[in-house]
């Protein structure tokens, strides 16, 4: 759905950023800004700033920042349109009805309908659990030590033994077979007819981070197969992008998240007071899961089953978490299989002790590796140390690698220098990327991030934001065309238009961007500060130098887009570049 710029701005203005964020974060006024603990990363000292004059927020710790739309999108995990609807409702603004014939409206309408169906199915299963034929499910849950409050809190239910109960209920609610097929809750089979996907199962509603029911998991009652069954992927349900319990865990404010294997593990842990537990949805832990968790925490504790399958699952999850920038530890459940069993037998305090004793992921990996070798045999120990040395190459930072070298050398009684030489030997045997502990992809990304032309554009925009009076001095030389691509080009167009009118409204500029990454990149410009130099004259000279570099960058950009055979075009640009340099010699920057 498209909403006009004026409406977007009206909604923003009527949602004061301090009022909105105060509903999520405890803010304290300091000078012209408000400060609090950042809701996007864990911290003990407030580094999260909200500035009323700019109607923007910025975290000096994690770099998050933007306007009121950005905050709602980031905190609630909304897309831009959802944030608009949320803030419009908060401000009492009635939005225009969506166009019924737009193609994107068709998809949006289907998603909305599927969410309605899932919600009604969840209520249906919850109702069935309390009926006479649902007692088998209710007794199963109470035998697993779940309280009535917990059952209600997670919306647990029961799918009856008859194979078309949900289908008949949803048909009475007016849903077509076509839509019900899309829901994944009803199976349409040419030979067997139409029947519910779930029957004779305890039901676990799966919710997204905004607590909308997007799918279900079902545990069979009796000896049927499969033991656990999940909804298929639909327009609203992607297993690799959702985690069971995250809608509750994200508000726990714990310093870490605990990743379990199953629904019952999560529920048992929440009931016991560990409300930061989540689980993947009947699938292996993926990079999508890790990226999702990175929005809410910096550290994860893996609490997988203590059997071989659970250990292997943990070994697969560790590198995925580390690649997403998450610190990883492992909780030892032995002598019990899983956290549900552990807590039922030993209770909250014992589990808290296991959390505090959680093992460093690297040492967990090498302890598992150690089981494959006889360390009392010199040859076996040599092979083991060789494998550990190869794993030490995964630490890219030299300080971190040396810390682990010391710890391994001490634990296995190996000389530090001998182990270091062995690590270096294996490093030399690897390709260039491995030897430098940096992949080609990362090097290319760093080169992109250090693009001089973009750095100069960013600096000039920051200078204009910091010193709006500069605009009048350079507007005859610099235009939005000198910021040719991406976020900076859009910011430049909006900023120059505002400065031409003698105003500066950073939060309004951010309305243009609907993707959160773009909003944050633009917001960084408005929260950056130009480095102070030794004198005003030095700052004035530095500013002029940046203007010159931006103009040179424009010329280089235009030349790069010429066809190789366009000699005339190249000569024209060369002449323009020469004239531009001569013109810029007349430019005088004054910060008086």
What key attributes describe this structure?
592 residues, five-stranded mixed beta sheet, 4 domains, DNA Primase, Chain A, single chain, DNA primase DNAg catalytic core, N-terminal domain, five-stranded antiparallel beta sheet, alpha+beta
Quickly describe the structure.
The protein has 592 residues and is of the alpha+beta class. Helices cover 52% and strands 11% of the residues.
Count every helix, treating DSSP H or I runs of 4 or more residues as helices.
Answer: 27
Radius of gyration of CA atoms, rounded to a whole number: 29 Å
At CATH level 2, the architecture of the largest domain is: Alpha-Beta Complex
CATH topology of the largest domain: DNA primase DNAg catalytic core, N-terminal domain
* DSSP, total strands: 16
Estimate percent helicity: 40-55%
Q: What is the CATH class name of the largest domain?
A: Alpha Beta
* Mean model confidence by pLDDT: 87
The largest sheet, given as strand count, sense and whether it forms a barrel, is: 5 strands, antiparallel
* Global shape: globular
What low-confidence regions span 5 or more consecutive residues with pLDDT below 50? Answer: 431-441
User: What distance lies between the first and last C-alpha atoms, to the nearest angstrom?
Assistant: 47 Å
Number of domains: 4
Sheet with the most strands: spatial strand order: 1-2-3-4-5
Structural class: alpha+beta
Strand content: 5-15%
């Amino acid at each position: 759905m498209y909403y006009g710029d004026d409406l977007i701005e009206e909604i923003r203005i009527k949602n004061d950023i301090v009022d909105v964020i105060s509903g999520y974060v405890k803010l304290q006024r300091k000078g012209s800004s408000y400060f609090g603990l950042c809701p996007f990363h864990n911290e003990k000292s407030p580094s999260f700033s909200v500035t009323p004059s700019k109607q923007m927020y910025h975290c000096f710790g994690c770099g998050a920042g933007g306007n009121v739309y950005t905050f709602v999108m980031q905190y609630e995990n909304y897309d831009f349109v959802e944030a608009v609807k949320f803030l419009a409702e908060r401000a009492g603004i009635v939005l225009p009805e969506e166009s019924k014939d737009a193609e994107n409206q068709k998809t949006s309408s289907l998603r909305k309908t599927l969410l309605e169906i899932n919600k009604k199915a969840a209520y249906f299963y919850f109702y069935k659990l309390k009926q006479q034929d649902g007692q088998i499910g209710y007794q199963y849950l109470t035998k697993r030590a779940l309280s009535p409050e917990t059952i209600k809190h997670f919306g647990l239910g029961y799918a009856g033994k008859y194979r078309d109960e949900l289908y008949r209920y949803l048909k009475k609610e007016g849903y077509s077979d076509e839509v019900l097929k899309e829901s994944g809750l009803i199976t349409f089979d040419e030979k067997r007819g139409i029947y519910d996907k779930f029957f004779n199962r305890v039901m676990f509603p799966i919710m997204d981070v905004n607590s909308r029911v997007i799918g279900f998991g079902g545990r069979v009652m009796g000896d049927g197969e499969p033991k656990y069954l999940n909804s298929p992927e639909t327009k609203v349900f992607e297993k690799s992008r959702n985690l069971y319990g995250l809608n509750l865990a994200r508000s726990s404010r714990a310093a870490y998240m605990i990743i379990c294997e199953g629904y019952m593990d999560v529920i048992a842990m929440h009931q016991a007071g560990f409300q930061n537990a989540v689980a993947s949805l009947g699938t292996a832990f993926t990079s999508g899961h890790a990226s999702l968790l990175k929005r809410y925490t910096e550290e994860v504790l893996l609490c997988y089953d203590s059997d071989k399958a659970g250990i292997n699952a943990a070994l697969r999850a560790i590198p995925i978490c580390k690649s997403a920038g998450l610190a990883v530890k492992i909780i030892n459940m032995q002598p019990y299989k899983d956290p549900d069993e552990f807590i039922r037998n030993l209770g909250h305090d014992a589990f808290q002790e296991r959390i505090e004793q959680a093992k460093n992921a690297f040492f967990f990996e090498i302890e598992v590796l150690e089981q494959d070798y006889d360390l009392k045999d010199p040859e076996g120990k040599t092979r083991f140390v060789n494998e550990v040395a190869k794993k030490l190459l995964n630490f890219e930072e030299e300080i971190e690698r040396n810390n682990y070298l010391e710890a391994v050398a001490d634990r296995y009684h190996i000389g530090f220098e001998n182990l270091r030489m062995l690590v270096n030997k294996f490093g030399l045997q690897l390709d260039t990327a491995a030897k430098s502990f940096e992949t080609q992809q990362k090097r290319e990304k760093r080169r992109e991030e250090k693009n001089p032309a973009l750095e100069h554009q960013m600096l000039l925009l920051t200078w204009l934001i910091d010193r709006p009076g500069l605009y009048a001095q350079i507007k005859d030389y610099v235009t939005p065309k000198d910021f040719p691509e991406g976020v900076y080009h859009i910011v430049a167009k909006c900023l120059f238009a505002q400065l031409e009118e003698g105003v500066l409204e950073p939060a309004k500029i951010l309305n243009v961007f609907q993707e959160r990454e773009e909003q944050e990149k633009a917001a960084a410009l408005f929260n950056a500060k130009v480095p102070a130099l030794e004198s005003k004259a030095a700052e004035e000279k530095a500013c002029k130098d940046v203007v010159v570099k931006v103009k040179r960058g424009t010329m280089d950009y235009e030349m790069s887009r010429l066809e190789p055979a366009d000699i005339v075009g190249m000569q024209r640009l060369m002449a323009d570049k020469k004239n531009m340099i001569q013109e810029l010699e007349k430019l005088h920057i004054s910060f008086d």
